[in-house]
Write a structure and sequence with these properties.
Beta Polymerase, domain 2, six-stranded mixed sheet, 16% strand
């Protein structure tokens, strides 16, 4: 898998996690695309808010369940589930933060990551779809290796010249073909004549 393909796969996982947050009524869901220099190991932070600890736990459970069920991906570690005011699911390439609204305002993780590019799930989804469409078009425009080799081979082969075609045509025995056709016609006439003679008799 190339670096671009791996990055797209991570984006698909982040999008699925964001959708799980939205489905469980997470508020002000944001995806922070982290600066590669500043990020360390992670590429994305997914941040969402819950109105109470039960909702925060429900959101984190839904994210974990969906990624496990649809992609077979498990978090590397989960922290804060017991308290429920800030739950962190670490998937290495991205981290999901589920905050209580007042905790999110207090820690202000978006401000701490100023170099990150904040995106809404809809913007993130639009970018992902555009990247996948571009990849599909690129794959369709590439010719298979066999077709390319065949095209190259036919280009190298010299095309027959008109003089050569005329020589070959001149060698074909046209007279014999005409003789055969005449013999067939004569036989047909004889049969017709003999049939007519029998009827008259």
């Amino acid at each position: 898998m190339t670096t671009t393909e791996a990055h797209q796969q991570i984006r698909i996982l982040v999008q699925a996690a964001a959708q799980a947050c939205e489905d469980k009524k997470g508020e002000d869901t944001r995806i922070l695309e982290l600066d590669p220099i500043d990020a360390g190991l992670s590429d994305f932070f997914l941040v969402t808010s819950a109105t109470n600890d039960r909702q925060a736990i429900a959101i984190s459970d839904e994210v974990e369940h969906r990624l496990k069920k649809e992609f077979g991906v498990y978090p590397n570690s989960v922290e804060g589930r017991r308290k429920g005011d800030w739950i962190l699911l670490d998937y290495v390439d991205f981290v999901v933060h589920v905050f209580l609204t007042e905790r999110r305002a207090f820690y202000d993780i978006e401000r701490l990551r100023k170099s990150a590019r904040p995106l809404s799930p809809a913007e993130f989804d639009a970018e992902l779809k555009a990247a996948l469409a571009e990849k599909t078009l690129a794959a369709r425009s590439k010719k298979p290796a066999k077709v390319k080799a065949l095209a190259a081979k036919t280009e190298k082969e010299p095309k027959p010249k008109k003089a050569a075609i005329k020589k070959v045509a001149a060698k074909v025995p046209v007279a014999k073909k005409a003789t055969k056709v005449t013999a067939v016609k004569k036989t047909a006439r004889k049969k017709t004549a003999s049939g007519a003679t029998k009827r008259n008799a």
